[in-house]
Amino acid sequence: MIRFEGVTKEYADGTTAVGGLSLNAPTGAITVLVGPSGCGKTTSLRMVNRMIEPTAGRITIDGEDTATMDPARLRRGIGYVIQHAGLFPHRTVVDNVATVPRLLGWDRRKARDRSMELLERVGLPAELARRYPHQLSGGQQQRVGVARALAADPPVMLMDEPFSAVDPVVREQLQDEFLRLQAELGKTILFVTHDIDEAVKLGDQVAVLRVGGRLAQLDAPGRLLADPADDFVAEFVGRDRGYRGLAFRPAPPLEPREEPTVPLGAAPEEVRRVTADWVLVVDAGRPVGWVEPRAIDAPVTTDRLHRGGTVARLDGSLRAILDAALSSPSGRGVLVDDDGLLLGTVTASAVVAALDGVPRTDPVEPPEPVER
Amino acid sequence: MDWILGHLDDIGGYTVQHAWLAGLPLLLGLAVAVPLGWLARRRSWLYTPIVAGTGLLYTIPSLALFILMPLVLGTRILDEENVIAAMTIYTVALLTRTVADALGAVPDDVVAAATAMGLGPVRRLLTVELPMAVPVIAAGLRVAAVSNVSIVSVAALIGVPQLGVLFTDGFYRDFLDPIVAGLVASALLALLFDLAIVALARVLTPWHRTPAAARSGSEAPS
Ligand SMILES: Nc1ncnc2c1ncn2[C@@H]1O[C@H](COP(=O)(O)OP(=O)(O)OP(=O)(O)O)[C@@H](O)[C@H]1O
Ligand SMILES: [Mg+2]
């Protein structure tokens, strides 16, 4: 656990970057620091690995006061990922990743093997290993940055807006992979972002900071959206927090309706026989898209499909289920099981009706130290 | 022309001597400029005194410096150490700012990442900052090399042999051949230094030779 106890940083010019911050980042969980620009997020993060020294208060990691630890040793036990990855442009990808293991005295062979293993883990093909950073896309560089931070298997990770310099599609992909990786690794993570959506998506708990580095609210993401502590947090969390909060509300018991389907390759007559309205096309039991019977003049192929509709798991979040209904051209949201097999459909009005029956706030308390 | 052909040995000897007197100070000067430039970066209040102070050294007339050196070093007037020391001073004058600015141009996030991985200041300098500064430092070295090759000739006036001797010889005898030979040899030497530095910089910066990734902004789904 990383513990901030009344931590303050005042710069020589009198700026209070962080003012009396106290919070715990539990072992094995992701704690997100979020807040407007200049609120002291980076400063807070850098005080953990002592790239910046606090002017008051103390920070402990698993009970040990960081101020008493040798900075170099402290840092080699903490992975650090930053916005533009900060890769060494003069070293190949594999050598970048091997940096800390080499510093720790691993032999070349072992460091390289570890490095290759990590590249695979973060989803990079082995042939990129010999390249230099400038030969990679922004998203790939960021993955290398994560691999490099993980190389010596540090228990603690500090991440400063690691995904904010890539485009939204890649960002989402990186976030999903990051969550998957964290589910396997269970690191103690302090994650900084100014993006509240990213904060509620990734955080086991979210700390909202106001300018001057003061804690405005520390809560589980669902509670943050449902019950902002004050106007500042409410404003920061944003307008459609009601809708976004659905992401943290458990799905109500919904009865999916049976949906008539046609297989890929079905003939136009076959499609028209089902209904005049939109028809769901399946392939080996998995929904692949919708077709409009009167627009079909040849057997159904994938390029004829309407792909606007999202697909939700029946046990997924309310937000995903409602979105499936709202985005479907037929108005019927497609529900699947954990294996992606079709269970049926549900309309938006059915979801909203069911909504009235579920508790408004997430009953979950702020996360205890999570064992994963 | 006959004179040149008849004195090829002499000209060759002078050229080697010239290369030594101009080349060794490049290495010595670099060895001094790197820690100075680094210090100027690490302590921001030292930047101006160090960079301006070393820059001023370049304004000392070379003849004066050659004559002053024995007094400072306790050497004899004809010793080549005087020339080497003086040329080292000029090299430091040209390179200190270059080194300081080259180190300053290393992106903050790269320095931050290196620090966060537990690299101490010296290790960071040697393994990250200097390798990244090679292209800029090499550009500074090329200027210093040409400058050294040209200034060293003045040492002929204090009797240290190198290509400059050909100029004084031609001048006193009112004879063009040695002067032409000296000019051509100096130019070739300067060119040689330049090529050597470019080649060395190329070897030291393999990452500069690889084509960049297509700037697509997005990546193929994996
Ligand atoms: N070296 C410094 N000297 C003086 N003030 C500083 C220094 N570094 C940061 N600050 C100030 O401290 C405050 C917090 O800075 P910090 O970088 O921690 O903010 P941040 O929350 O990370 O912002 P952003 O989202 O823009 O990255 C800012 O007001 C900043 O101007
Ligand atoms: Mg910041």
What's this model, at a glance?
Chain A is α/β, with parallel strands linked by helices and 372 residues long. Chain A is 32% helix and 24% strand.
Could you outline the blueprint of secondary structure elements for this entry?
The complex is a heterodimer of chains A (372) and B (222).
Chain A: E1 2-10, E2 16-25, E3 30-34, H1 41-48, E4 56-61, E5 64-65, H2 71-76, E6 78-82, H3 93-97, H4 99-103, H5 108-121, H6 138-150, E7 156-160, H7 168-185, E8 188-193, H8 196-202, E9 205-210, E10 214-219, H9 221-226, H10 231-237, H11 241-245, E11 261-263, H12 268-274, E12 279-283, E13 286-291, E14 311-313, H13 318-327, E15 332-336, E16 342-347, H14 348-355
Parallel strand pairs in A: 3-8, 3-9, 6-7, 7-8, 11-12, 14-15
Antiparallel strand pairs in A: 1-2, 1-4, 4-5, 9-10, 12-13, 15-16
Helix pairs in contact in A: 5-6, 13-14
Chain B: H1 2-6, H2 8-42, H3 44-57, H4 62-73, H5 80-104, H6 108-116, H7 121-152, H8 164-173, H9 176-204
Helix pairs in contact in B: 2-3, 2-5, 2-7, 2-9, 3-5, 4-5, 5-7, 6-7, 7-9, 8-9
The structure holds adenosine-5'-triphosphate and magnesium ion.
Adenosine-5'-triphosphate (ATP) is lined by residues 11, 13, 15, 17, 37-43, 194 of chain A.
What CATH architecture label of chain B applies?
Orthogonal Bundle
Oligomer kind: heterodimer
- CATH architectural group of the largest domain in chain A: 3-Layer(aba) Sandwich
The average pLDDT score of chain A comes to: 90
What is the count of distinct domains of chain A? 2
Which percent band covers the strand fraction of chain B?
under 5%
Biggest interface, chains and residue tallies: A-B, 41 and 29 residues
Q: pLDDT under 50 segments of chain A (min length 5)?
A: 361-367
What strand line-up does the widest sheet of chain A have?
Answer: 6-7-8-3-9-10
What is the makeup of the main sheet of chain A? 6 strands, mixed
For the sheet with most strands of chain B, the description reads: none
Q: Which value, in Å, is the CA radius of gyration of chain B?
A: 22 Å
Q: Give the distance, in angstroms, between the N- and C-terminal Cα atoms of chain B.
A: 71 Å
- In whole angstroms, the N-to-C terminal distance of chain A is 15 Å
Helix/strand/pairing class of chain A, anyone? alpha/beta
H and E string of chain B: HHHHHHHHH
The CATH topology of the largest domain in chain A comes to Rossmann fold
| Structure ligands | adenosine-5'-triphosphate, magnesium ion
How many beta-strand elements of chain A? 16
Structural class of chain B: mainly alpha
Text of the CATH class of the largest domain in chain A: Alpha Beta
